[in-house]
Amino acid sequence: MSEILQQLAQVLEQRKLEPTEKSYVAGLYAKGLDTILKKIGEEAAETIIAGKGGDKQQIIYETADLWFHCMVLLASQDLSPDDVLAELQRRFGLSGIEEKSKRKS
Ligand SMILES: N=c1c2ncn([C@@H]3O[C@H](COP(=O)(O)OP(=O)(O)OP(=O)(O)O)[C@@H](O)[C@H]3O)c2ncn1[C@@H]1O[C@H](COP(=O)(O)O)[C@@H](O)[C@H]1O
């Protein structure tokens, strides 16, 4: 896993064990799943808007917000980015069209 994903995942786990008042992540955990999911919805919408706008820096910024909040969701469900990376690895080389036809048969 990329080093920053690993480091961030460790901090997200740490915030579950030792929540601090000044932690944004601990605040999200405390507010609960619906708040985390709402943030993902907002960040996804902002990523769409950035994509339409075509400003590369804005696309990077909003995608980072989206990935970050998805990582908070994973951590809240005791999942790790490794779980998602393993799924991408499993799919690697399998065409989306082929995969869909297997699901339907
Ligand atoms: N990568 C991030 C990160 N990306 C985005 N954000 C926060 O996510 C929020 C994004 O919300 P918005 O863009 O909607 O901005 P906003 O309107 O200010 O937010 P809200 O009031 O709606 O929540 C902002 O408060 C950002 O600061 C992040 N907060 C934390 N991290 C990482 O998580 C670590 C732990 O953070 P704390 O738990 O706060 O110490 C940090 O060291 C960072 O590595």
Describe the structure.
The chain has 105 residues and is an all-alpha fold. The chain has one domain (3-87): Helix Hairpins (Orthogonal Bundle), CATH 1.10.287. It has six helices and no strands. The protein has helices spanning 3-17, 24-31, 33-53, 56-76, 81-91, 96-104. Helix 1 (3-17) crosses helix 4 and helix 3 (33-53) packs antiparallel against helix 4. It is globular and about 50 Å long. The N and C termini lie far apart (34 Å). The model has no long low-confidence stretch (mean pLDDT 94). Bound molecules: phosphoribosyl ATP (PRT). Phosphoribosyl ATP binds next to helix 1, helix 2 and helix 4. Residues 8, 11, 15, 23-26, 42, 65, 68 line the site of phosphoribosyl ATP.
Q: What does this entry show, briefly?
A:
InterPro entries: HisE, PRib-ATP_PPHydrolase-like. The chain has 105 residues and is mostly helical.
Global morphology = globular
* Unreliable stretches: none
CATH homologous superfamily classification: MazG-like
Seen as an oligomer or otherwise, the chain set is: single chain
* H and E order: HHHHHH
Largest sheet: none
Individual helix count: 6
**What is the helix fraction of residues, given as a range?**
over 70%
- In total, the number of strands is 0
Radius of gyration: 16 Å
Class from helix and strand fractions:
mainly alpha
| Residue-averaged pLDDT | 94
What would CATH call the class?
A: Mainly Alpha
- Portion in strands: under 5%
Distance between the termini: 34 Å
The overall number of domains is 1
CATH architecture descriptor = Orthogonal Bundle
Catalytic activity: 1-(5-phospho-beta-D-ribosyl)-ATP + H2O = 1-(5-phospho-beta-D-ribosyl)-5'-AMP + diphosphate + H(+)
Protein name: Phosphoribosyl-ATP pyrophosphatase
Pfam family, one: PRA-PH
GO molecular function: ATP binding; phosphoribosyl-ATP diphosphatase activity
